[in-house]
Write a structure and sequence with these properties.
eight-stranded mixed sheet; alpha/beta; 865 residues
Length: 865
C-alpha cells in the first residue's frame, strides 16, 4: 500500500521519515524564549525563583526545564553555603531526573540531598524536618520505580512520621497514600486497607476545601489502581460535591473525568459517556477537556459509533493545537493518533486520509518531545509512528522508525516503552519472512516484560492500557513462533523450544494473576511440577493459539511431546461455551457428552497411547484460555467420562508450593458456613448438614452463621494451625479482584483480604494450610475469564491445595459429596486427587446424581498428592 502525506514541514512527500526525525537524539531544537517556556541563563536568577520555575515546569510536564532550573538553584545555594536549601533543590532535582529516565543522575542528586541533611540539627527546626521529609519522600519514589518496594515503604514511613510531627496534614496524607501503594505491591492487602482507611479518616477530619477535594481525588486514584472501584467512586463523588459547593470548575472537571474512567472500567458505558461530556465543558482546564473528549472518542469507537467519532475528531485536533508542549500533551496527541488509526482500520473510504492524519499528529508530538528534550515521550511517539507504517504494511519504513524508538527508550531505561517496540519489531520481522530474527525480538520483549512485572501493575490501571491487548499477545505470539514447524522441512520444534514455550505460558499465567491482583504475586518455596517424583502422573499443557491448539505432554523422565489440533481459538471457545450451557441442564446429558467427546478428541485422544504405555493414573492440567472454564472431568471418550479413567487436578502454573502428601496424623478442620439468607444471597439449607458430616469424619472447629464473621475466622486461623480450612458459603470467582469474594455473616470478604487473612498465620505456624475448601462458590455468570479469580485465590491463599466448586448446588448432593470426600481423605493410602475422584464417582454411579451437574463442579487446584 502506498500513501502520500503532507507533513507539517509544508511540502508534499511520500510516507517516509522526514529528515528532522531521522537523526534520533541529534539536532534537537530548544524552545525559544518567544514561547514563554524557556529558563533564561544569561541573567542571574535568585535561587528561590529558580525553585519556583522548576516547580512550574515540572507540574506542566517540562522535565528538562525543571532540571535546568533546579540545577541552577542547587549551585546558587551551594555557593551561599545554604546546605538545607541545597538539599531541597537536590531532592527536587532527583524527581525530574527520574522522569527523564536519568537514573544515575537521580540517585546522585538524592544522595547529595540526604548527605547534606545528615549534617543538620533537623530535630530543632520544623522547616528542616519538612525538607528531610521531602527527601525521604523522593527517596521512596526512586526506590519504588526501581522495584525496591520494601525500601520504598520504609522511606515513606519515615516521611510520614516527619510530616505528622510537623502537623502537615496534606503531605502526611500523601505519604500515607504512597505507603498504601507499596503495601499493595508487596501483597500486604490488609495493611494497605488499614492505611487507606487512615487516609480516609484524615481527609474526613479536614474542613471542606480545595485541598480536601484534591486529596479525595488522589485517594480515589490509588483505590482505582488497586481495583477498589466502588470506594474510588464514593471518594470522587464527595470530591465533586465539594468542588461544586466551592465553585471550583477545574476540580469538578477532573472528578468527572475520573468518574467516567471508573464507569468505563465497570462497563457502564452510557454513564461513562455522560461523565466525559460533563467533564469537557468550556470552564474545564484545556488539557482535562481534551482528555475527556479523547475518552469520549475511545468509547464511541468501542461502541462502533463511527460517524459520531469522526465528527468529534476536528474539535479534538483544534484543542490539541492550542495546548503548550508538555509530556501530558504529547501523550494526548499519541492517544488521538491511536484513535484515528482505530477508525481508519474499519476500511472506510477515507482510510488513507485518516492514516495521514494520524501521522501528522504524531510528527508534531515528536517535534514537541524534541523541544522538551523528553526522550521517553519522543521514543513513545516515534514507535507509534512506526505502528502507523506497520498498519499500512510499509514494513521497511516501520522497521526503521521502530528501531530508532527502541534505541531511544533503552537509552533512558524506559522498559515499559521498550518492550512495545521490541514486540513491534518482532511483528515486522515476522511479516518480512525473517522468523529467526523475529524470534530474537520476541524473546527480548518477553525478557523486558519479565523485568517490569511490578511496573505493569500500575500501568494496567490506565484507561488506554489493556492487559489483553498490550501484554498477553506478546506471550502468545512468542509461543506461536517457538512451536511452529519449519515450513520447508516440517521439522519438529526442538526440546529446548518446547520447554521454552511451556515456560512462556507459565509466565503469562503469573502475569495474568499479577494484573488480577494489581500486585506481584507472593512467591513461596515452589517446586517445578515435572520434578515431582510421581511415576504415574502426567502433566498436560494445552496452549490455545489463534489458528490451532497445541498440547504438550510431560511424562516422568521423558522428553516433552507435542500434539497439534487444527482447531481455531474461536471454535474452542464456542465448544466450551456450549458445554457450559449443557452442564447447567440436569434433565439431559447426551448433547453434553457429544461436546465433551469433541473436546476429548482435541485434548486427550492423541495422548491415549502414551498415557497407557506409562500407566498414568493422575492427569494434571495446566489449562489455558477458555479451557479453564470447564471441568476436565466431563471430557468424554464415547463410553466413559475422563474422571472414570484418571484422578484429575489443575495447576495454576508449572510450579507448586512445596508439594507434600497430606499428613494423616493431625488432620483437623476449621469449618465455617452460612445457612441463612445474608446480603441478598439465598439460604444454603444443606450447609449445616455438610459441616456436621465433616465433624463426624475429622476433628473440627465449626463457625456457623452468626459465629462466622470475618474477625472470628481471623481469630481461629491465628490461634490454631488447622491443616484444612473449609468455607461452605456463597462466593464468586470473577476476572476482577473486587468481584471475587466469599460471604461471611457480617460482610463479603474479597479475594485480597481473604488471601491476607489466610496468610497472616504464616508467622505463627510452621506449615502452610494443606487444603482450602470453597464449597458453594461459583464462577461469575457471563464472565468468560472468571476462573482467573479461582486461580487467584488458590495462588494467593498460600494453601498447598484448593478444592472449589465452579457452580452452586442447593441440593443434598453437595453435602453427600463433601461427606464422601472427607471419608476418602481420612484414608491414609489415597492422595487428594484420588479422594476427589472417588467422591465424584460415588455420585456418578448413583442413578439420582449421574448428570455432571451434581459431581462435575468440584476441581482440585495445586498439590494433588
Amino acid at each position: 500500500m502506498s500513501l502520500s502525506l503532507l507533513l507539517v514541514m509544508g511540502r508534499a512527500t511520500s510516507f517516509t521519515i522526514p529528515d528532522s526525525l531521522a537523526n534520533g537524539t541529534e539536532g534537537r531544537s530548544q524552545i525559544s524564549s518567544s514561547e514563554g517556556n524557556s529558563i533564561p541563563t544569561a541573567v542571574a536568577i535568585a535561587p528561590e525563583n529558580s525553585i519556583q520555575q522548576g516547580r512550574d515546569a515540572y507540574q506542566n510536564g517540562r522535565f528538562a526545564q525543571a532540571v535546568e532550573a533546579w540545577e541552577q538553584a542547587a549551585i546558587a545555594y551551594q555557593e551561599q553555603g545554604n546546605d538545607v536549601q541545597q538539599a531541597l533543590a537536590s531532592s527536587y532535582l532527583a524527581l525530574a531526573h527520574q522522569q527523564l529516565g536519568a537514573w544515575a543522575e537521580a540517585q546522585a542528586a538524592i544522595a547529595t540531598s540526604m548527605a547534606l541533611l545528615q549534617n543538620q540539627q533537623i530535630s530543632s527546626n520544623p522547616q528542616h524536618r519538612l525538607i528531610l521529609a521531602q527527601a525521604w519522600n523522593t527517596q521512596g519514589s526512586l526506590q519504588f520505580a526501581q522495584g525496591q518496594i520494601e525500601d520504598a515503604l520504609t522511606s515513606w514511613q519515615r516521611a510520614t512520621t516527619l510530616y505528622a510531627a510537623a502537623n502537615d496534614s496534606q503531605r502526611y496524607i500523601g505519604s500515607l497514600i504512597n505507603q498504601a501503594q507499596a503495601q499493595q505491591s508487596l501483597g500486604l492487602y490488609l495493611q494497605a486497607r488499614r492505611t487507606l482507611s487512615e487516609v480516609e479518616r484524615s481527609l474526613q477530619q479536614q474542613p471542606d476545601s480545595e485541598l480536601k477535594a484534591i486529596g479525595l481525588q488522589t485517594l480515589a486514584e490509588i483505590l482505582r489502581t488497586v481495583g477498589d472501584l466502588d470506594q474510588a467512586r464514593q471518594q470522587l463523588e464527595q470530591s465533586l460535591a465539594i468542588a461544586e459547593q466551592l465553585n471550583l470548575p477545574p476540580l469538578q472537571s477532573t472528578a468527572l473525568l475520573s468518574l467516567g474512567n471508573i464507569a468505563q472500567a465497570q462497563e457502564e458505558l452510557a454513564a461513562a459517556l455522560t461523565f466525559y461530556q460533563r467533564a469537557a465543558t468550556p470552564s474545564a482546564p484545556a488539557l482535562t477537556r481534551v482528555q475527556a473528549q479523547l475518552n469520549q472518542l475511545h468509547l464511541l469507537i468501542t461502541t462502533e459509533q463511527w460517524s459520531q467519532a469522526q465528527a468529534l475528531l476536528p474539535n479534538i485536533e483544534t484543542q490539541l493545537d492550542a495546548l503548550s508542549p508538555s509530556r501530558d500533551t504529547i501523550y494526548a496527541r499519541i492517544n488521538a493518533a491511536q484513535q484515528v488509526v482505530a477508525i481508519a482500520q474499519r476500511e472506510q473510504p477515507d482510510a488513507t486520509t485518516l492514516y495521514s492524519k494520524a501521522a501528522q499528529i504524531l510528527v508534531i508530538a515528536i517535534q514537541h518531545a524534541k523541544q522538551l528534550n523528553d526522550s521517553r515521550a519522543e521514543a513513545y511517539a516515534l514507535g507509534q509512528l512506526g505502528h502507523v507504517y506497520e498498519t499500512t504494511r510499509q514494513w521497511q519504513e516501520a522497521q526503521t522508525l521502530t528501531e530508532q524508538a527502541l534505541l531511544m527508550a533503552q537509552s533512558v531505561n524506559a522498559a515499559d516503552v521498550a518492550y512495545q517496540w521490541q514486540w513491534q519489531l518482532g511483528r515486522l520481522l515476522k511479516a518480512q519472512q525473517q522468523p529467526s530474527e523475529a524470534l530474537k525480538a520476541y524473546r527480548a520483549a518477553f525478557d523486558t516484560l519479565q523485568s517490569i512485572r511490578r511496573d505493569l501493575i500500575a500501568t494496567s490501571s490506565d484507561l488506554q492500557f489493556s492487559f489483553r491487548d498490550s501484554v498477553e499477545p506478546v506471550y502468545r505470539e512468542l509461543v506461536d513462533l517457538l512451536l511452529q514447524r519449519s515450513p520447508n522441512s516440517q521439522q519438529e520444534p526442538t526440546q529446548a523450544n518446547l520447554q521454552e514455550a511451556r515456560q512462556v505460558i507459565e509466565s503469562l499465567q503469573l502475569a495474568e494473576l499479577d494484573n488480577f491482583f494489581r500486585a506481584a504475586c507472593l512467591d513461596g518455596q515452589r517446586v517445578a511440577i515435572d520434578q515431582i517424583d510421581q511415576t504415574d502422573t502426567a502433566v498436560i499443557y494445552p496452549i490455545v493459539l489463534s489458528d490451532r491448539l497445541e498440547v504438550l505432554l510431560s511424562l516422568p523422565q521423558q522428553p516433552i511431546r507435542q500434539y497439534t489440533a487444527s482447531v481455531s481459538q474461536a471454535e474452542i471457545e464456542q465448544a466450551v461455551a456450549q458445554l457450559q450451557q449443557q452442564l447447567a441442564r440436569p434433565l439431559t446429558s447426551q448433547q453434553g457428552q457429544q461436546l465433551g467427546q469433541r473436546l476429548y478428541d482435541w485434548l486427550i485422544r492423541p495422548l491415549e497411547t502414551e498415557l497407557a504405555t506409562h500407566a498414568s493414573k493422575t492427569l494434571v492440567f495446566v489449562l489455558d484460555g477458555a479451557l479453564r472454564n470447564i471441568p476436565m472431568a466431563t471430557l468424554y471418550d464415547g463410553d466413559r467420562y475422563l474422571i472414570e479413567q484418571y484422578s484429575l487436578a489443575l495447576a495454576p502454573g508449572l510450579q507448586l508450593l512445596n508439594p507434600q502428601p497430606l499428613s494423616q496424623n493431625q488432620l483437623e478442620v476449621l469449618a465455617a458456613g452460612l445457612t441463612q439468607e445474608r446480603s441478598g444471597f439465598s439460604a444454603l439449607v444443606n450447609v449445616e448438614n455438610e459441616l456436621n458430616e465433616i465433624k463426624a469424619k475429622l476433628p473440627s472447629q465449626i463457625l456457623l452463621n452468626e459465629a462466622f464473621t470475618s474477625s472470628a475466622l481471623q481469630t481461629q486461623i491465628d490461634a490454631l494451625p488447622f491443616p484444612i480450612v473449609h468455607l461452605a458459603t456463597h462466593g464468586q470467582f470473577s476476572s476482577k479482584a473486587d468481584e471475587t469474594f466469599i460471604l461471611a455473616w457480617d460482610r463479603p470478604i474479597n479475594v485480597n483480604e481473604l488471601s491476607s487473612l489466610l496468610r497472616n498465620s504464616d508467622d505463627t505456624r510452621s506449615n502452610p494450610i494443606e487444603l482450602l475448601v470453597l464449597s458453594a462458590c461459583e464462577t461469575a455468570a457471563g464472565d468468560t475469564r472468571a476462573t482467573l479469580g479461582l486461580a487467584g485465590i488458590a495462588v494467593q491463599a498460600g494453601a498447598r491445595s484448593t478444592l472449589a466448586s465452579l457452580w452452586v448446588l442447593n441440593d443434598e448432593s453437595a453435602a453427600r459429596f463433601i461427606s464422601q470426600f472427607y471419608q476418602e481423605l481420612a484414608d491414609t493410602t489415597v492422595s487428594k486427587a484420588e479422594a476427589l475422584q472417588r467422591a465424584q464417582l460415588a455420585l456418578l454411579r448413583d442413578p439420582n446424581y449421574r448428570h455432571p451437574i451434581y459431581w462435575a463442579p468440584y476441581v482440585l487446584i495445586g498439590n494433588w498428592l
